[in-house]
Amino acid sequence: MASVTLSEVRKAYSGFEVIHGIDLEVQSGEFLVLVGPSGCGKSTLLRMIAGLEDITDGTISIGGRVVNDLPASQRNLSMVFQSYALYPHMSVRRNLAFGLTNLRMPRDEIDRRVADAARILQIEDLLERKPRQLSGGQKQRAAIGRAIVREPQLFLFDEPLSNLDAELRVQMRVELANLYNRLGTTMIYVTHDQTEAMTMATRIAVLNKGNLEQVGTPYELYNAPRNLFVASFIGSPRMNLLEGRAVGQGVDLPGIGTLPAKLPAGSVTIGVRPEHLAIGQPGDLSVEGTVSLVEYLGSELFVYVDLPGGRTLLAQAPGNARYRRGDTVALGFRAADAHFFDAEGLRLEAVL
């Protein structure tokens, strides 16, 4: 296991900076997920840690050693890519052993490592197959096995599940989490899917346009987002956002009412997650609207409610609830469940 430290790391292409001075400490033995929208720089950051991209400025340390000038082959890490990158003419066994053979490792040690990786990933019966004979999930297991046999101090994953269908992605999420629990090796995982981040990570680092917005546990990011970007990015479905103005002892929401919460005077954005909008129940603030869409997901419903002022709120309800398009419903929410952000999008703590 190894810690990873990034200090003022920057990356520029032809003078255009895409990573803007990131400071990040990855603790030894943790599963850190880098998450953010497409183009935010998360894969570039991972490739710099791997040694596949040069850094423009700053330092990267792995296990307490600065690796800025070390090639990828000398960083004692393994990387799993979005594409499986298996050699099509080789069996799974030979794919797993190939890198170790090039290192001139003794045959009995190669066999031991391949057998251990196959057992961990439950692909022992696939070792003699060629990649064309494997399903997508089996190919991904083989690609992960090739990384495991190196017995590195650090695993890097670059969106490894994005080529899989929805059901298989859920299955592989569970398998990767179990793999982490068995190996205990430091892992850094890149994804644009915040559900993957929330379900697997010990900590999450949220990136946006080359900047690090917040680092914390899934619980911290969901319940105490540091700014408006994190609040709206983390959580599925997205948080409801309402524009208002703090005046005196409350926040005035035009066309809705006043939410009792004491904040510094000025523009305020209030965020309310769908599960905190109660249909047909009173709250610190209630508003009526018309149901415009109902999404049935079995165990729950997502109900879209159009307000008189043109806004639409999304509320979550139990799966056995009965709402139809055109129904008039009342939505209530508590100030204690709301998140408050100032005009710059930074989190505010309200006095309730």
Write the layout of secondary structure elements.
Layout (H helix, E strand, L loop, with lengths): L3 E10 L2 E11 L4 E5 L6 H9 L6 E6 L2 E2 L10 E4 L11 H11 L4 H15 L14 H13 L5 E5 L7 H18 L2 E6 L2 H7 L2 E6 L2 E6 L1 H6 L4 H6 L6 E8 L2 E4 L3 E4 L5 E7 L5 E2 L5 E12 L3 E7 L5 E7 L9 E6 L5 E3 L5 E2 L4
Parallel strand pairs: 3-8, 3-9, 6-7, 7-8
Antiparallel strand pairs: 1-2, 1-4, 4-5, 9-10, 11-12, 11-14, 12-13, 14-20, 15-19, 16-17, 16-19, 17-18, 20-21
Please characterize this protein's 3D structure.
By secondary structure, the chain is of the alpha+beta class. Helices cover 24% and strands 35% of the residues. The chain contains eight helices and 21 strands. Strand 16 (285-296) and strand 17 form a beta hairpin. The chain is globular, with a radius of gyration of 24 Å.
